[in-house]
Design a protein that fits this description.
307 residues, alpha/beta, Rossmann fold, 6-stranded mixed β-sheet, 4-stranded parallel β-sheet, 11 helices, globular, binds pyridoxal-5'-phosphate, ACCD_DCysDesulf
Length: 307
Amino acid sequence: MPLPTTAALRPRLPSPLTEADDDRFARHGVRLLLKRDDLIHPDLVGNKWRKLVPNLEAARGRTVVTFGGAYSNHLRATAAAGRLLGLPTIGVVRGHELADRPLNPSLTRCVRDGMRLRFVDRSTYRRKHDPDVLSELLDATGTRDAYVVPEGGSNPLAVHGCVELGRELCGRADVVAVACGTGGTLAGLAAGLAPDQRAIGVPVVGGGFLAAEVRALQQEAFGGPRGTWSVDERFRFGGYARVPTELAAFAEDFEQRHGMPVERLYVAKMLYALVALVSEGSLAPGTTVAAVVTGAPGPGPQPSASR
Ligand SMILES: Cc1ncc(COP(=O)(O)O)c(C=O)c1O
């Protein structure tokens, strides 16, 4: 039987763009739009659809091997895609110690979707793209000819997949905001926008490396820089997976105001950043800003405690 195609998964594309009535924006003369990529597909949510689909098509039925942490949205989406498209998947998980513990809800979902997990120690994980380490990992999982998708799914194909997100927003907003992990979504989004539009990336991890990553991804994908974009590093809230009480309260309040589930690790930080940018006057009156809702809350309890 032939494998199902990604078109058979019936994505909701272009994703909906809705106006959000929010006095924190309106009082500064700024319009807020929500680009609901979280509604593209129930299992391949948000930027996962845009980044993974071109890679799954390129895999052409081969086993897909990819990488992530214990709560990785990317691992979960890859596992779901494997189930939906009949592709075997292997997830290389950071943290050898996790192998002896009960699986968390996110990894449980991966396994239910048929993903084989391989736990590796942190030092091996850091060197996962070193050709020798990678080939040992592939040998150990018996998948020498596997299709390898990098951590976070960001490679040139993924960046090209995100160009369409920018194109869908052409003529609809002056500024587009997106949360960033590896920068692949921002790299593609900025390339798809019109020359009079700009993108703002809100990194959720520290290190100050994101702008360089985006430039490198655009170089690999397009051969040079594309679009107008910047990053604002001020809204990391202590780093990846940190959700202090203030951010959790902000996210809950946003959910109540707009009736939309707010993913805490990325989307909440980007929305918080936008409210802060508007209130400090960084978005001029008359600006229309689109916030890209790149994901939805995952399985299990939402992180809410101060850490
Ligand atoms: C919900 C969500 N938003 C944004 C991002 C960041 O995407 P990128 O790694 O392309 O910067 C991720 C990454 O996994 C994510 O899960």
